[in-house]
Write the structure tokens for this entry.
Amino acid sequence: MKFEDVKKIGVVGGGVMGGGIAQVMAVGGYEVIVRDLSDEVIEATKGAMFESRWGMKRSVEVGKLSFDDCQAAMGRVSFTLDLQDLADCDMIIEAVPENLELKQKVFQELDEVIKPEAIFTSNTSGYVIEELAANVLESRKQLFAGMHFFNPVPAMKAVEIIATSQTTKETADAVTRVGEKAGKVTGQVADMPGSYGFIVNRIFGAARREAVKLVEDGIATEEEIDRMMIGGRNWPVGFFAQRGGIGQQW
Ligand SMILES: NC(=O)c1ccc[n+]([C@@H]2O[C@H](COP(=O)([O-])OP(=O)(O)OC[C@H]3O[C@@H](n4cnc5c(N)ncnc54)[C@H](O)[C@@H]3O)[C@@H](O)[C@H]2O)c1
């Protein structure tokens, strides 16, 4: 599947990340279908996509998106509970909870339903992509990559594109260009068996471990470390202020 042939994207899991991903893909010009498991989640996701702080309505209010483009993007998104409705998608972005067995099972189900030439990607925060592809057909493994967005998706610019040893260059390049069409800054990363995380979270994790050690050794307080990193490195927010925030589990 080439970049030019990707027209319809299926987002599997319409939670915090899936809703944001669906939003940026629709604004980027793609037809998007979101699959989740209950009407309640779907209603909440629709609300977040259009009404939340990072939603399309706000983008119109601050002049980042025209009213007509917002209407058009809204018209390109649909929702379903039925996996079969994704059968003709050209590309899948999986965003179900971070659980290896669940993701492997979801990809197995998708492999049986989605057309064989479609690209499969996962928004996992850090699983080895090759392991996520364990249950799909050999031919699909060439079309399988990681596509790691950051939270909140409409606001955070980066997307890491992870290629396994079997991902073709055509697939990695197509996923990269889809990310760029959705307005993102992309970086290609090699899958790394035996590790968890890609560029951003691994570097963040290393710095975070050092910050925690500085506190444990009595070298500085949390507040001092945050203040020094903001003032000395222009960080927008300190480590410790982020603790317990969105997506932070330390
Ligand atoms: N939240 C973050 O800050 C963040 C950042 C980057 C990456 N991620 C990754 O994104 C993925 C999703 O995280 P999230 O925070 O959006 O989780 P979430 O719990 O908000 O959303 C997951 C959604 O998947 C749905 N779901 C579960 N099984 C499903 C299935 N079989 N088919 C369709 N939908 C299904 C759930 O109902 C839920 O709505 C995880 O892999 C996570 O590690 C999260």
